[in-house]
Write a structure and sequence with these properties.
527 residues; alpha/beta; 8-stranded parallel beta barrel; 6-stranded mixed sheet; 17 helices; elongated; binds 2-acetamido-2-deoxy-beta-D-glucopyranose
Length: 527
């Protein structure tokens, strides 16, 4: 029965992979030219990654020093033979030339990730404007090296000119519904880099738990984490994540979602949440953050001061989604306040009041912000440089939403069709792959306001046991859509390359799930 069902669900993609590796880079570069002629053999012990003499960055550059070590290990394994001797006939070097200096900074929305990779018979060269582009080029190089049946390493004569289509290519992990150990986050960052993702959207806290250890408000995680000793991210953990991401050219976009999605904050911050009422009496349950108290804003000012200095990225994600008004409506103090300020029954005005105050707090720390689409939908006045994150899926209406958001001159991020936590039988990566982010009514100026998108892995049904296989290679579909040219849409070709890339992930020790029937030369045999 399983077999018959499989044929019904996935009739088109029954393809066999040829032996050996097809010419496969994932995501597909903007321009790739493979020259005819014999492939060049690489001798593991005699292959070098070097800084070009005229490069603006030189040995000692943390980002590239570590990337060189990492990619040599990925290519040839941890125990690369050290080949000594006079015979340098088989020596080969990939020379890396970076135009602009800078190794110690953080990647940003404006980072340049373009690169040119030339692999000819007598020289391998990689050129990039910034170290971030050099990282992308090294990844591409690592995917071009292949191994013959006899175990010899080869690389074909190839020229690649490459750059991302969108500057914001993100992946959201949710560490509140389930705690994800540091190792899961770091492994995800590794695989993100293999896919050229460049933003880790860390949805760090939410209703179920508050694992972020705050220095200003230690009670938040002490009372709000699942376990305040084992299920928390200490300041040291957070630093590790940020640096690990930086070394891979990945920004960390932290999200502290308010005023809804904050139940876990309540225990450690008495008086922060709105007491809900049943009739004239408090029911003992709590709703969103209480927007009518001065103490709320004093709390937020102090907390976001800490958050702004902990997370170096210019942007913070401030959430603002799914605010449930029933508790606010039940509370007599809030109803009184609404009367006083003339909001009547319009609770979106109260939400606006809260969000505006929060935005001005966060701006005062020199930060920009991303908000979920409801903030825009409810007409909250936000600064012109706000990024609106489109997530609501109902019946493909995200296209209308992109139209509205960009028509109002806001920049937009798309996630609605990329909720990878939703799973279905069959090849559901295809749906994610087919999305064209700019397919909505609008002027070229409007289209230019779409800065990218994010694949989301919400955590209700996901923890360290199933995160990796559920993400990969499915998130790769989003990675290619956001990096590669608009014209890269052929499903059959994508299937072959993605299946091949998934085998490469297995070779790299990533427990990526299969796309469909088939096998890999090197299967996953456990960690
Ligand atoms: C390299 O070229 C060979 C033919 O020389 C071809 O069989 C192989 O698919 C190519 N591999 C890659 C990774 O491009
Ligand atoms: C050089 O490479 C060729 C072909 O890959 C190999 O047969 C030979 O043993 C290599 N020589 C050295 C010194 O590594
Ligand atoms: C809250 O702050 C405002 C402005 O700073 C002030 O006018 C008001 O009296 C304060 N309310 C309370 C209850 O402290
Ligand atoms: C675009 O914005 C203008 C006002 O700036 C408005 O009149 C128009 O209805 C908007 N169109 C859409 C599709 O939202």
């Amino acid at each position: 029965m399983g077999g018959r069902l499989a044929r019904v669900v996935a009739p088109v993609l029954v393809l066999l992979l040829a032996g050996g590796r097809a010419s496969a880079v994932w995501p597909m570069p903007q321009r790739l030219t493979e020259a005819p002629g014999p492939s060049t053999a690489l001798s593991p012990g005699r292959f070098r990654l070097r800084y070009a003499a005229a490069s603006a960055v030189q040995p000692g550059c943390s980002v590239l020093d570590q990337a060189f070590a990492r990619y040599l290990r990925l290519l040839f394994g941890p125990a690369r033979p050290a080949e000594a001797g006079e015979d340098q006939a088989n020596d080969s070097t990939l020379t890396v030339f970076v135009v602009n200096p800078g190794c110690d900074g953080f990647p940003s929305l404006n980072s340049l990730e373009s690169y040119t990779l030339i692999l000819s018979e007598d020289q391998f060269s990689l050129k990039a404007e910034e170290v971030w582009g050099a990282l992308r080029g090294l990844e591409t190089f690592s995917q071009l090296v292949w191994r013959s049946a006899e175990g010899t390493y080869f690389v074909n004569k190839t020229e690649i000119v490459d750059f991302p289509r969108f500057p914001h290519r993100g992946l959201l992990l949710d560490t509140s519904r389930h705690y994800l150990p540091l190792t899961s986050i770091l492994e995800t960052l590794d695989v993100m880099a293999y896919n050229k993702f460049n933003v880790f959207h860390w949805h760090i806290v939410d209703d179920p738990s508050f694992p972020f250890e705050s220095v200003s408000f230690p009670e938040l995680s002490r009372k709000g984490a699942y376990n305040s000793a084992t299920h928390v991210y200490t300041p040291e953990d957070v630093k590790i994540v940020i640096e690990y991401a930086r070394l891979r050219g990945i920004r960390v976009l932290a999200e502290f979602d308010t005023p809804g999605h904050t139940l876990s904050w309540g225990q450690g911050a008495p008086g922060l949440l709105t007491p809900c009422y049943v009739g004239p009496a408090p029911s003992g349950t709590y709703g969103p953050v209480n927007p009518i108290l001065n103490s709320t804003y004093e709390f937020m000012a102090k907390l976001f001061s800490e958050i702004s200095s902990v997370f170096p990225d210019f942007y913070l994600h401030l959430g603002g989604d799914e605010v449930d008004f029933t508790c606010w409506r039940s509370n007599p103090d809030i109803r009184y306040f609404m009367e006083e300020v003339g909001f009547g029954q319009d609770f979106t005005k109260l939400e606006s009041l809260y969000i505006q105050k929060l935005l001005s707090i966060v701006s005062s720390y020199g930060k920009g912000y991303v908000v979920w689409q409801e903030v825009f939908d409810n007409g909250v006045k936000v600064k012109g440089d706000t990024v609106v994150h489109v997530w609501r899926e109902n019946a493909g209406s995200y296209r209308k939403e992109l139209e509205r958001v960009t028509n109002a001159s806001y920049r937009a991020l798309l996630s609605a069709p990329w909720y990878l936590n939703r799973i279905g039988y069959g090849q559901d990566w295809v749906e994610a792959y087919k999305v064209e982010p700019l397919q909505f009514e609008g002027t070229p100026e409007q289209k230019a306001l779409v800065i990218g998108g994010e694949a989301c892995m919400w955590g209700e049904y996901v923890d360290a046991t199933n995160l990796t296989p559920r993400l990969w290679p499915r998130a790769g579909a989003v990675a290619e859509r956001l990096w590669s040219s608009k014209d890269v849409t052929d499903i059959q070709s994508a299937y072959l390359r993605l299946a091949d890339f998934r085998c490469e992930l297995l070779r790299r020790g990533v427990q990526a799930q299969p796309l469909y029937t088939g096998f890999c030369k090197q299967e996953f045999f456990g960690p």
